[in-house]
């Protein structure tokens, strides 16, 4: 095979992987990568989040599912990334979050950390990865910390599971306790939606949060609850509280990436998109179909190296020297007749 070279430089193509190539953003304004926001920030840790909460400085969180998205969100300044079990729906096309496979979840969590090494990455423990027994829960949580490179694990729990949180904490595994509306239990009420409908419901959720903190949880997350509930939790606990559809009182706010950028056909009521990326992807796809049909594929092509002849010899074809020898032999035979 003839070695390919970049048509703009004449140098042989470097043997980089696809990931290495797409991760290296083209330089603009010197050597700053596209999308970079100044110098690299310090790693976000639980200490960072506690300090921000103490200063009443909100921190941004997103659920996303791949290294490329994580890389861009880190550059955007997002502090916390959740490898959410919502990947079952938005990535795998499943109807419910309970269909998230453990092995896939571990792999996606590690992908986020590799893509955004300075972000605080939380692993969302899938359905039945922690409910069957405390021992199994600890083993699976440990996998997220080691194989998945997670900084913490999130469990959808209530105060009946404080013993598990204590055991995880004793094992050295930071826990984010998810209280309020719990999507993994949606089958109990016939679908997704807020379960905090009454003052009694609210009091239960607040008590769940208090008990989770006492058991050792380093973070709390509340989903789909009236603003007053989150405000009460902030007043009665000391650990950072992340909210999703729970009002502005929370220390951090999280949404699913696809809901935020307008990729979801049916986003939840609390998710207000900041872009219509779905429409832009649609146009990009249509443009590519048109370019292919018109043979306008664009980009830069490849050329032969300068010292190589710009001809292609197929198998069985004559070289110039072989052709010259054949002609001389033909001429000699003709003169001898």
Features:
337 residues, alpha/beta, TIM Barrel, two-stranded antiparallel ribbon, 12 helices
* Strands, count: 12
The end-to-end span amounts to 44 Å
- The number of distinct helices, counting runs of at least 4 residues, comes to 12
CATH superfamily: Phosphoenolpyruvate-binding domains
| Helix percentage range | 25-40%
Provide the succession of SSEs. Answer: EHEEHEHEHHEHEHEHEHEEHHEH
CATH topology group: TIM Barrel
CATH class: Alpha Beta
Q: Outline the low-pLDDT stretches.
A: 1-16, 25-36
Indicate the radius of gyration in whole angstroms: 29 Å
Return the CATH architecture.
Alpha-Beta Barrel
- Give the count of structural domains: 1
- Cross-sheet strand order for the largest sheet: 4-5-6-7-8-9-10-11
* Overall residue-averaged pLDDT value: 88
Protein topology:
Layout: E1 5-6, H1 18-23, E2 27-28, E3 32-33, H2 46-54, E4 59-63, H3 67-76, E5 80-83, H4 87-90, H5 102-115, E6 120-124, H6 134-146, E7 152-156, H7 162-170, E8 175-180, H8 199-215, E9 219-223, H9 227-236, E10 241-244, E11 252-256, H10 257-260, H11 277-293, E12 302-303, H12 320-336
Parallel strand pairs: 4-5, 4-11, 5-6, 6-7, 7-8, 8-9, 9-10, 10-11
Antiparallel strand pairs: 1-12, 2-3
Helix pairs in contact: 3-5, 7-8, 8-9
């Amino acid at each position: 095979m003839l070695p390919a070279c970049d048509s703009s430089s004449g140098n042989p193509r470097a043997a980089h992987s696809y990931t290495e190539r797409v991760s290296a953003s083209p330089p603009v304004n010197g050597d700053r990568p596209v999308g970079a926001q100044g110098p690299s920030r310090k790693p976000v840790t639980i200490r960072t989040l506690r300090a921000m909460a103490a200063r009443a400085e909100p921190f941004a969180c997103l659920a996303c599912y791949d290294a490329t998205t994580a890389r861009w969100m880190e550059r955007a300044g997002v502090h916390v990334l959740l490898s959410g079990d919502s990947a079952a729906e938005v990535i795998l096309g499943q109807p419910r979050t309970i269909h998230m496979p453990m092995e896939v979840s571990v792999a996606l969590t590690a992908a986020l950390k590799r893509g955004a090494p300075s972000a605080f990455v939380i692993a969302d423990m899938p359905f039945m990865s922690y409910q069957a027994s405390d021992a199994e829960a600890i083993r699976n949580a440990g996998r997220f910390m080691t194989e998945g490179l997670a900084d913490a694990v999130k469990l959808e729990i209530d105060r009946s599971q404080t013993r598990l949180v204590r055991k995880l904490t004793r094992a050295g595994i930071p826990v984010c306790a998810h209280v309020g509306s719990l999507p993994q239990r949606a089958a109990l009420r016939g679908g997704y939606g807020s379960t905090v409908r009454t003052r009694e419901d609210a009091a239960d959720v607040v008590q769940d949060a208090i008990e989770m903190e006492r058991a050792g949880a380093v973070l709390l997350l509340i989903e789909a609850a009236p603003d007053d509930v989150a405000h009460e939790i902030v007043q009665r606990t000391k650990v950072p509280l992340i909210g999703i559809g729970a009002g502005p009182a929370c220390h951090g706010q999280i949404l699913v990436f696809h809901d935020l950028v307008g990729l979801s056909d049916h986003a939840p009521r609390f998710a207000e998109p900041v872009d219509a990326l779905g429409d832009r992807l649609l146009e990009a796809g249509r443009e590519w179909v048109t370019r292919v049909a018109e043979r306008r594929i664009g980009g830069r092509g490849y050329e032969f190296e300068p010292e190589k002849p710009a001809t292609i010899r197929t198998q069985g074809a004559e070289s110039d020297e072989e052709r010259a020898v054949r002609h001389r032999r033909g001429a000699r035979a003709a003169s001898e007749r």
